[in-house]
Amino acid sequence: MPRPPAGTPNARDKLLDAALSVIRAKGYSATSVDDLCAAAGVTKGAFFHHFRSKEALAVAAADHWSETTGGLFASAAYHRQTDPLDRVLGYVDFRRSLIAGEVCEFTCLVGTMVQEAYDAHPDIAAACGRSIFGHARTLEADIAEAMERRGMAGGGWTAAGLARHTQAVLQGAFILAKAGGGPDAAVEQIDHLKRYITLLFEARPGEGLPS
């Protein structure tokens, strides 16, 4: 079957795009196939032509989320910084700049789904894990280079661990926003993350955070 012209989404693409917004707003369990079809403007027949179940769509949506957001981050201006630490801090600033609009508009699809699916839907949980940990790995090279430039290897922590920590803070920030804190609660935690990373790199080699 020939693909539609570039820029013209087919039913599958429309359903995936709908999943990004509807599931973030309602959660995975509360989202029905009917909700997704209505948001995408397609029939249930079209849905089941492309996906055997809502779970199958959720797995595909997690991968679609990674592809969509991956392009956004890959083209971000912070990559143009010459100092690797500036690139890491620029990443944090960029994440802060994305906190805008309603909570469901800036929170994370895969973080939303995995909180519901981690035990009941292992395929969804695995897809969400690939997305979150895969995104964390995109930060590792800059963190490792910043550590090397500052002679920080062997200080009791790793570039991979700090990269994962950034995602733990961000996902926690989204939970606080959903719990009623709104965007200000998320921004507050991202600001703390930037302060933490700055202090961590100000510590002398082999030491922890300054007292």
Identify the quaternary structure here: single chain
Count of DSSP E strands?
A: 0
Alpha-carbon distance between the termini?
A: 64 Å
* Total DSSP helices: 9
Give the helix level as a range of percent.
over 70%
Strand/helix succession: HHHHHHHHH
Beta strand %? under 5%
Main beta-sheet annotation: none
Based on secondary structure, the structural category is: mainly alpha
Tell me, what's the shape?
A: elongated
Query: How big is the Rg?
Result: 19 Å
Average of pLDDT: 92
Contiguous uncertain segments of 5+ residues:
1-6
Structure description:
This protein is an all-alpha fold and 211 residues long. The protein contains 9 helices and no strands. Helix 5 crosses helix 8, helix 5 crosses helix 9 and helix 7 crosses helix 8. The radius of gyration is 19 Å and the shape is elongated. The N terminus is likely disordered.
